[in-house]
Amino acid sequence: MGFVGARSRGRVVASCLALSGVLLLGSGCGPVMGYFELRSRERMRQQQIAAHQAALEADARARKNVTAEEKLENGDSSLRAGRIDRAAWSYLEAHRRDPDNPVAQERIGFLQVTRDPTRAEVIFNRLLEEDPTRAEAHAGLGLARFAQGNLEGAEAALKRAVDLDPEDPVAINTLAVVYDLQGRHDEAGEQFARLESLRPEDPNVANNVGVSLLLLGNFVDAETALRRALVLSPDDKATWNNLGLALGHQRRYDEALEAFRQAGNEQAAQNNLGYVLYLNGEYQEALAHYESALLEDGDAKPKVLRNLEAARQAIAQR
To answer: Were both Cys, which of 23, 78, 256, 259 would link to 83 (CB 3.0–4.6 Å)?
Structure first.
């Protein structure tokens, strides 16, 4: 038939439609089938777009209908999975849905303790103005102050948290650490013992008890606590280091070196054993291990050199 111009196309379509059901292959009516096929495809595309839009709107309505409690649960799940930013977003959404519920604000405050402790302190203070009896808010306030180095303020808040909730492991543990840092090791030991009775299977508790006993100079009981921590968490490097200190203070140097090796590379192990020997007044032996450490690969060379110089000065002053 040839090319059909824009003006004549309508007449061609009309003439084809006028045919009484007769299909003439190869005639000028051929383009009619293409026209209806395009119209059909366009309708299908529009239907798909409408269905997609409807699905998006339904999803938005479903999200809008999620309760604050569900958002809190989502945030807790994200936090357990280590997805901090997603947890924070869920807690913020929970707060928007139920502004009067303090739990979401507390969760946000705890997330801010390490990121922005000043902001965390503001959040917890605001919560306590509304309800001074919230144990978790007092605990959060104590953590925020502790993160800022305010030990006295942290102690006051944490003691109040423990008074309100005698089984709060976070408040008890942090209070014990505060006591240790203040040199009040007996009081720290009491709190750690209390925590051990509540959380006997927690390796962090056992490790902290061991550290407290180390500070008290009770190296035998410290070893017991640290070995218990390692049964619960065999690969914890901090606990292995602490065990090395407990063994070294008992002058069981071969065992101490093996413990230090479990915690790091050979350079770090030799340096740590040298430090224990230095603390025990065995400066010449400490010097030998510092020199061994310098022969090993590692990034602790500046620290080793400082320790080595301290040992030399101690020897010179004898």
So the answer is: 78
One-letter amino acid for residue 262 of the chain = Q
Which segments of the chain does DSSP mark as H helices, in order?
Answer: 6-18, 31-64, 68-80, 84-97, 102-115, 117-130, 135-147, 151-164, 169-181, 185-198, 203-216, 219-232, 237-249, 253-263, 266-279, 283-294, 301-316
> Is residue 318 included in any domain, yes or no?
yes
Q: Residue holding tokens 């040839």?
A: 2
**Contact predicate 278/307, CB 8 Å:** yes
Q: Is residue 284 part of a domain?
A: yes
Q: Cα-atom radius of gyration of the chain, to the nearest Å?
A: 36
Task: Kindly report the number of other CB atoms within 10 A of residue 182's CB atom.
Answer: 13
Q: Is 241 within the bounds of a domain? A: no
Domain limits for position 296:
265-318
154 touches 146 (CB < 8 A): yes
Residue 308 has pLDDT above 80, yes or no: yes
How far is it, in rounded angstroms, from Cα 277 to Cα 280? 5
- Token pair for 77: 């799940």
What b/e string do you get for 238-252 counting C-beta neighbours within 10 Å, with b at 16 or more?
Answer: ebbbbbbbbbbbbeb
Residue 26 is predicted with a pLDDT of: 38
Number of domains in the chain: 1
Are residues 237 and 262 in contact, defined by beta-carbon separation less than 8 angstroms? yes
User: In a 3-state reduction of DSSP, which class is residue 166?
Assistant: coil
**pTM for the complete prediction?**
0.61
Residue 313 lies in a domain: yes
Measured distance CA(141)–CA(109) in Å, rounded: 9
The predicted model gives 206-231 an average pLDDT of 89
pLDDT in tens, 34-74: 545 555 666 666 667 666 665 555 555 545 567 878 888 88
Q: State percent of the chain over pLDDT 90.
A: 50
